[in-house]
Specification:
Elements lengths: L1 H12 L1 H10 L9 H5 L3 E3 L10 E5 L10 E5 L6 H8 L1 H8 L2 E6 L23 H17 L6 E6 L1 H12 L6 E5 L10 H9 L6 H9 L10 E7 L8 H13 L8 E5 L2 E7 L5 E8 L6 E3 L15 E3 L4 H8 L57 H10 L5
Parallel strand pairs: 3-4, 3-5, 5-6, 6-7, 7-10, 11-12
Antiparallel strand pairs: 1-2, 2-4, 8-9, 9-10
Helix pairs in contact: 1-8, 1-12, 9-10
Length: 399
């Protein structure tokens, strides 16, 4: 009952947003081009143990060299694999550069908003639930397509980003690197009430406490996958303070200090990195000032145009897909630009601009936990309708 009480308190504080969300629903899909993108993807019906009841979709170029890389791409809430692929441009880049893409897809039967269940312990432990389903898919890709097991990477947005953090923690020996976009640290939540809490105001654990959560998730003792963290400062769905928790978690796992090795700007966006003694970047953080909740894209200008704007796919003047792939050495000698005309940004998905001078993560310690204002917005993607309606009724906010 204590957990329900916390949920009711949170709902009471933001009752207008919750009621509007329940009345109108959440925009689904990623646009009219979903069908075209779906045609690029191949579904594998049988892929081994699947306790999470997920769909396995993939893209493999016609000419794939033996020992090529694999990128696992996890969509966000209200999205599907094909739509997120089109929005992010991962399969287009894979075709161009000669690697494969695995796109696990959530089913509405598992989560009404097609969120990966990163907040349920039965899906976030090694050898269980959705985590094991994704691991089975990876094994199938390695076996069927001659993937180099040393070149497996994972990325995701929002709930997909949180699930990517789950996979990096529970199966660290599988991945060479991961990229978490608007996501949350491993074990940031263990049920629905704590998911609400973490998304709006995460508990500030110490770096050691965060690192211990990862170390306890498996018997692995290193080496650990590299981690790239991307976050918009105007995100009202996943509080940007969650990026701080992710930084604390993975710098501690890698045994790195809180102060970054390097601070610079990439495509005009703030970038910090932590490197080992040889200069190899182990952890990095991109801060996209003024961007809301979504995957940062560059679709209208610049040499690295990938993807298409839409809900939660945001024109930000920097391509996360390109820079993540480059950090994983997936960009070869082929042209860096997909041969397609520039796309006009979707005005519905434009980032919100912060007041002048307001920022989230100034260069310096990863222990800085500033937040954007004091009003977390609607927690898109983690609304289980029945639970919310019950809580609202008990709080006297619905009849």
């Amino acid at each position: 009952m204590a957990g329900l009480g916390r949920t009711i308190t949170d709902l009471s504080q933001h009752r207008k947003a919750w009621k509007k969300l329940l009345e109108t629903g959440i925009p689904g899909g990623t646009g009219p081009a979903d069908a075209a993108s779906a045609g690029r993807l191949h579904e594998t019906a049988e892929f081994g143990p699947d306790p999470g009841n997920l769909r396995m979709l993939s893209y493999v170029p016609d000419t794939l060299a033996p020992g090529s890389a694999l990128v696992v791409v996890l969509h966000g809430c209200t999205q599907n694999a094909a739509g997120y692929d089109q929005g992010s441009g991962w399969s287009a880049l894979a075709e161009q550069q000669g690697f494969s893409v695995l796109l696990p897809e959530q089913r509405k039967a598992n989560n009404p908003n097609t969120c990966f269940n990163w907040f349920q312990v039965q899906h976030t432990a090694r050898g269980m639930g959705e985590a094991l389903s994704i691991r089975s898919m990876i094994d199938t890709m390695v076996r069927d397509h001659g993937i180099d097991p040393r070149r497996i990477y994972i990325t995701g947005l929002s709930a997909g980003g949180a699930m990517a953090a789950v996979m990096l923690a529970t199966y660290p020996e599988v991945f060479a690197g991961g990229a978490i976009i608007a996501g949350l640290a491993y074990r940031a939540a263990t049920d629905i009430p704590s998911a609400f809490q973490s998304m709006s105001h995460p508990h500030g654990l110490t770096a050691r406490e965060q690192g211990d959560l990862v170390r306890a998730a498996s018997n692995h003792h290193g080496p650990w996958p590299t981690v790239s963290i991307w976050q918009g400062t105007a995100d009202t769905t996943v509080n940007p303070a969650n990026a701080v928790e992710l930084l604390k978690q993975w710098t501690d796992v890698h045994g790195l200090p809180s102060t970054p090795t390097r601070q610079d700007r990439v495509d005009g966006r703030a970038h910090r990195s932590w490197s080992d003694g040889s200069g190899r970047v182990l952890v990095e953080h991109y801060q996209i000032d003024g961007m809301g909740h979504g995957t940062p894209l560059s679709t209208v200008e610049g040499p690295h145009r990938y993807g298409r704007t839409g809900p939660y796919m945001l024109e930000a003047g920097i391509s996360s897909t390109y820079h993540i792939a480059r950090s994983w050495d997936l960009i070869g000698t082929a042209s860096d630009v997909v041969d397609s005309p520039p796309l006009q940004p979707d005005r519905r998905a434009e980032p919100t601009v912060l007041p002048p001078g307001q920022t989230i993560l100034p260069p310096g310690s990863v222990d800085d936990r500033e937040t954007v204002g004091d009003r977390p917005g609607p927690q898109q993607g983690f609304q289980i309708r029945e639970v919310i309606e019950t809580a609202l009724k008990q709080a006297g906010l619905m009849k």
